[in-house]
Amino acid sequence: MVKKQESGLMEKIVSLCKRRGFVFAGSEIYGGLANSWDYGPLGVELKNSIKKLWWQKFVVERDDMVGMDGAVILNPKVWEASGHTGAGFADLMIECKKCHSRFRADHLGFVDEKGNIVSREDISCPECGKEDWTEPKQFNLMFKTNIGPTEEKTNMAYLRPETAQAMFVNFKNILDTTRKTLPFGMAQIGKAFRNEITPGNFIFRTREFEQMEIEYFIEEPNSDKDWQKHFEYWVKQTKDWMELIGINLKKVDAFEVPDNERAHYSKRTVDFMYEFPFGKKELYGLAYRTDFDLKNHEKFSGQNLKYKDQETGKEFWPHVIEPSFGVERSFLAILCEAYQEDPSATLGASRVYLKLKPYLAPYQAAVFPLLANKPQLVAKAREVYDSLKNRNSSFSIHNSFNVAWDERGNIGKRYYSQDEIGTPYCVTIDFDTLENNTVTVRDRDTAKQVRVLVPELKDFLTKKIYS
Ligand code: ATP
Questions:
Q1: Residue 216, Cβ neighbours under 10 Å: how many?
Q2: Which of 191, 458, 168 shows the shortest CA–CA distance to 318?
Q3: Residues of the chain with pLDDT > 90: what percent?
Q4: Is 84 in the pocket of ligand 1 (CB under 6 A)?
Q5: Residue 207 Cα, ligand 1 centroid: separation in angstroms?
Q6: Which atom of ligand 1 is nearest to the CA of 211?
């Protein structure tokens, strides 16, 4: 019987990630850097597969979407227009734990006449009315940096706290160069940086992370029905994406964020809350940003950022639906879904395997010669391995798998080792191969084996992996 072991699941995932080279603690040889993580050889493959699949689904396969890749450091005025900076930026800040609104601590009475911080439990949040505060701190979420050799204030800039703004800033460029008509979207994948007050839960909340974001521009709505239609469409698209990467939708709640907890720019927000082992937490967000961003960037830049309808000649700021996906939170949810233990295994301990979608797995297949000391087996296995990798073909970039090679130890251990990293198919070259040109293909989830002719192997695996 195969059982999902919920107890201690996070510890098991963290340990597997380190043991097998998915995720390492950042700067480990120097004692680490709190809540920073590095992705090893298998982790980077999984991360890349997530991003590639997302790009394929939301950009390549659609006619109404274009991609872009903006800078991490933008003109600081961008963050004034977006509302990320403000008059209280360099002051003592306090954050409401409920609605995440931030305030000048002195404005609310957390600082006495002498400038000392005072502890008060009776102050309610002006936004949501709750009395649940973080400790006052001297920073906001944006990381500051300096451009140029001096540290004068005029050279100060920020690392972007979201990828979205580069898309708004380039709205006109993209419109002019692509001639897209509404509705259409822009997509971007890239790093974002937030000086989070409470990072933690492994890679769930970090100060440096990657976002996959879409800004979907729609007509100026005449009624709520107009934008709700697009919004519902993106709810469905987000759910379809989750299924594509192997998330069980029964573990996801689409949470309607109430008025007093929404970001200042949003008229409707749905947070997709996934049942992580440490609680139900936001996996992705979907927001209706209205025309807030384009309007404000026009105000701050003095540039016309309106859209002109070619038929009616009407000019207006398009409204925006924004689905926002975290790469690392996807990575973690995928691992939580995929981790399996099979206690009926024969090699002593339970068989641990990652039931990853085959197209996401770091390796789609592994190739083994049955015995490492039989040159004929090794040579034949190399031939199969090279053909799967397309090493001898000029088309390798278009049609190759990631394939692992292993010739160490006994075959059972090699299977278990591949199971643990989610390799869906193991191909073994044995003495029968030399006789009849067939190999055994063993399935990760069922441990069942079939024999396949070598010339048919690639097609056989392609169908299994992508259908
Ligand atoms: P949270 O409420 O968890 O802080 P948020 O509402 O601030 O998240 P958004 O601003 O909506 O997050 O960002 C969009 C997506 O980016 C999130 O749904 C999540 O997947 C990802 N994300 C945001 N902050 C982090 C972080 N600190 N670490 C990892 N991923 C993050």
A1: 26
A2: 168
A3: 74
A4: no
A5: 10
A6: 16
pTM: 0.89
Distance of CA 68 to the CA centre of its chain: 17
Rounded CA gap, 252 and 218, in Å? 27
- Say if ligand 1 is within 6 A of residue 196 CB: yes
208 lines ligand 1 (CB under 6 A): no
CATH of 363-466, one of 1.10.3720.10, 3.40.190.10, 3.40.50.1100, 3.40.50.800: 3.40.50.800
Pick the atom of ligand 1 nearest to 285's CA: 18
Residue 3, beta-bridge partner list:
341
The CATH number given to 9-85+146-336 is 3.30.930.10
Say if residue 183 is preceded by a cis peptide, omega within 30 of 0. Answer: yes
For 465, the token pair is 């992996």
* Domain range summary for the chain, segments of one domain joined by +: 9-85+146-336, 87-140, 363-466
Nearest CA among 345, 360, 317, 313 for reference residue 416? 345
- Per the CB < 8 A criterion, the answer to whether 452 and 430 are in contact is no
pLDDT digits (tens, 9 = 90+) for 145-185: 998 887 666 688 999 999 999 999 999 999 999 999 999 99
User: Is the separation of the CB atoms in 213 and 287 below 8 Å?
Assistant: no
